[in-house]
Amino acid sequence: MNIFLNELSQLLDVAGVLSGKATAAYCLDQRRRYQGAALAVARPRSTAEVSAVIKLCAQYGVAIVPQGGNTSLCGAATPDTSGKALVLSLERMNRVLKVDSDNNTIIVEAGAVLAQVQAAARAENRLFPADWAAADSCRMGGALATNAGGVNVLRYGNMRELTLGLEVVLPNGEIWDGLRGLRKDNTGYDLKQLFIGSEGTLGVITRAVLRLYPLPTAHATALVALDHPAAAVELLRGVQAAVGDRVTSFELISKPCFELLAKQCPSLPHPFKPLPEWAALLELSDGGDSEVLSDQLAQVLVTLDCENALLAQNSKQARDFWQLREHIPEAQRREGVSIKHDISVPVGSIPDFLTECGQELAAAFSDAAIIAFGHLGDGNLHYNVFRADKTAAIYSDEPMVNDIVYACVAKHNGSISAEHGIGQLKRHHLAKYRNPLELALMKRIKQSFDLAGIMNPGKVLLD
């Protein structure tokens, strides 16, 4: 490996190769569940350098672990413990290259941070609608590799729907230039879709053409107390019937979430006393005037008999409402270790799923405490289980908890991964929840792109 490392150092500048203790931060995942080791960390500055590094890895048979902001929640960007893999960090390829206001597109490098892309679009009076809690640290290559979602999927879709073109370096070092800003292009297979959501197992995304939208000038936000999740589904249906696709976000928050926020984040505003069993946080956006849109939302809520609804009176109050939703993950982290699930079911099945899964977990674990919240508008729930022991010892029961949760998901024709990906965490479950033909097709695709098996081995698919 000394020869490989010597040649690697000749391809990149002094800051382009890290070794020894300098690699530590790249080998530990965000949730601190996976601690790996790296042969080195390569930090290229251009697509040409990425290509050169991958060609070198292919020559010497060195495994490659692509990494963006290292914010994966499933261990997708963490190397194994062998110390034989090269972490390929895209953090120095972080430029916004072009905003095309006429075509409503933005071209970015894979290392650009989400908040940076949002700001560049906003500077041109445009909206890049992808949005989630890690906006200040998540890089676009990782967001594309996991087909990330967030709070605005209801109106704008996942990263898959927000992407028009990609540039990708293949496992042999070839560069596929698919940077097309076209909304209509029927010239054969849509190759970019293979790489979106592939978690770095087929190639390394280096640049992307992303969709932009006109920047909304009007916003209306409400926090609505509800008795049960079925009322949230009814509310969503009623608001959409009244205002159509102006419903940008629709989030569900359970009472245990509010209780946890009050305990762990007491400085946040807490608008409900007493706390409701459930609440829906919804936002409308459009052109025009916010006051007009807020008045319209207020009228809709009255028509739908929402007796305990708080309509944000200004942008600060709207932000306060969103702070509650966005701090739930932090409140959980402060509380301790939980068994986390990122699942999706059809929207209408959410009430039954919550009831049935909660009952089965309570029967199996008398001390189970469920923190359920998420994107009801697109059927995606973050469904997390605490036990009395809030240390990593809880993971000894994770297989049984997962079996209960995922069986309920399957019963309702859902998915065990909605927006976080598979990574290392869920790869063993695919054999049970994807049929044999689907798995065989995935493996054939993997082999056709990565015959040597050097691209992010051990992720998504079992060997």
What structural keywords apply?
33% helix, alpha+beta, Alpha-Beta Plaits, Uridine Diphospho-n-acetylenolpyruvylglucosamine Reductase, domain 3, 463 residues, five-stranded antiparallel beta sheet
Please, could you describe this protein's structure?
The protein is of the alpha+beta class. Among the domains are: 96-214, Uridine Diphospho-n-acetylenolpyruvylglucosamine Reductase, domain 3, CATH 3.30.465.10; 218-329, Alpha-Beta Plaits; 336-420, 2-Layer Sandwich (Alpha-Beta Plaits), CATH 3.30.70.2740. The protein is built from 15 helices and 18 strands. The strands form four sheets. Strands 15-12-14-13-17-18-16 form a seven-stranded antiparallel beta sheet, with helices on both faces. Strands 5-6-10-8-9 form a five-stranded antiparallel beta sheet. α1 (2-11) packs antiparallel against α2 (47-60). 47% of the residues are buried.
Write the layout of secondary structure elements.
Elements: H1 2-11, E1 17-18, E2 40-42, H2 47-60, E3 64-67, E4 86-89, E5 96-100, E6 105-109, H3 114-123, E7 126-127, H4 140-145, H5 153-156, E8 163-169, E9 175-178, H6 192-195, E10 204-211, E11 213-214, E12 218-226, H7 229-243, E13 247-254, H8 255-264, E14 278-286, H9 290-303, E15 309-311, H10 315-326, H11 328-335, E16 342-344, H12 350-364, E17 369-375, E18 380-386, H13 398-411, H14 430-433, H15 436-449
Parallel strand pairs: 2-4, 3-4
Antiparallel strand pairs: 1-2, 5-6, 6-10, 7-11, 8-9, 8-10, 12-14, 12-15, 13-14, 13-17, 16-18, 17-18
Helix pairs in contact: 1-2, 8-11, 12-13
